[in-house]
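User: tokens in, sequence out, please.
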């Protein structure tokens, strides 16, 4: 139940610090997006170029035990790096939402399923709506389901 290999922390200081504090506390600390009070999860992937283990805090969008992973990058014109990691190795993904990480199967949502999950995502984190307005790309939404 863990990705083996070299862990490469994010080049972004606040991301590194948040992941470290979240994991060290079993999810009881650093579990919100900065000062918003809105919950996050930690998503662990395998780098699509290096093969290194990467960890990213994402907004917590959960419904009936499944999670939406929204590749918004704040409405930037390009996808976040972790998007490519998910596309390259959707079978090598962990989510931590509390004390212990767990394996998930990941698929990209399309059509009506994407719309339903997009609405859930915007309800959980309203800025997603603004992010979509900022960019010409359709922001990808992945669905992560706990592996049994």
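Assistant: Sequence out:
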């Amino acid at each position: 139940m863990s990705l083996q290999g070299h862990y490469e922390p994010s080049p972004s200081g606040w991301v590194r610090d948040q992941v470290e504090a979240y994991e060290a506390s079993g999810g009881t600390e650093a579990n919100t997006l900065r000062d918003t009070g809105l919950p996050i999860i930690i998503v662990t992937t395998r780098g699509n170029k290096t093969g290194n283990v990467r960890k990213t805090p994402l907004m917590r969008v959960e419904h009936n035990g499944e999670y939406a992973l929204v590749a918004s990058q704040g409405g930037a014109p390009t996808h976040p790096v972790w998007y490519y990691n998910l596309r390259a190795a959707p079978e090598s993904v962990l989510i931590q939402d509390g004390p212990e990480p767990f394996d998930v199967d990941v698929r990209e949502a399309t059509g009506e399923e994407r719309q339903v999950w997009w609405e859930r995502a915007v309800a959980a984190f309203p800025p997603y709506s603004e992010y979509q307005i900022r960019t010409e790309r359709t922001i990808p939404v992945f669905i992560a389901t706990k592996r049994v």
